[in-house]
Amino acid sequence: MILNFKLGEKELKALNPAPNEDILYAIPFDCDDNGNFTETGYTVVTKKRLVFLLNGDVLREHLLSDFDVIKAEPHIGCGVLIGKKGDREQLLIRYSARHLSRYAYIARGISLWKERKEETVTSTETERRCFVCGRALPGTKECPYCNRKNVGVMHQMMKLLRPHITTLIPIIAFMLMASAVTIINPEIQKKLIDGVLKNTDLVGKQKYVQAFQLVILMFIVGFGSAWINIGKSYCCAKLGSKLSKDLRSKLYVKVQELSLSYIYEKRPGELMNRLMNDTARIRGFMENVFCNMFTVVIIFFSVVIYMVWLNWQLAIVSFIFVPITFFLSMAWRKTIHRRFRRQGKCGDDVHSALQDVISGMSVVKGYGKENDESKKFNDFTDHFADVQRSNEVFWALFYPFLSFLMGVGVYFIFYFGGREVLGGTMTIGELTQFVTYTSLLYQYLGWLNNLPKQLMDMITSTERINDVLSCEPRIVNSEFPETPEIKGQISFKNVTFGYHSYEPVLEKINLDIRPGEMIGLVGPSGAGKSTMINLMMHLYDVDDGAITIDGVDIRDIDLDYFHSQIGVVLQETFLFSGTIYNNIRYAKPDATEEEVIQAAKMANAHEFICRMPDGYNTYVGEKGSRLSGGERQRIAIARAILNNPKFLILDEATASLDTESEFLIQTALNRLTSGKTTIAIAHRLSTLKDADRLVVIDKHGIAEVGSHEELMAKKGIYYGLVTAQLEMQAKKEVAPA
Question: Is pTM, for the whole model, over 0.70?
Answer without folding.
Answer: no
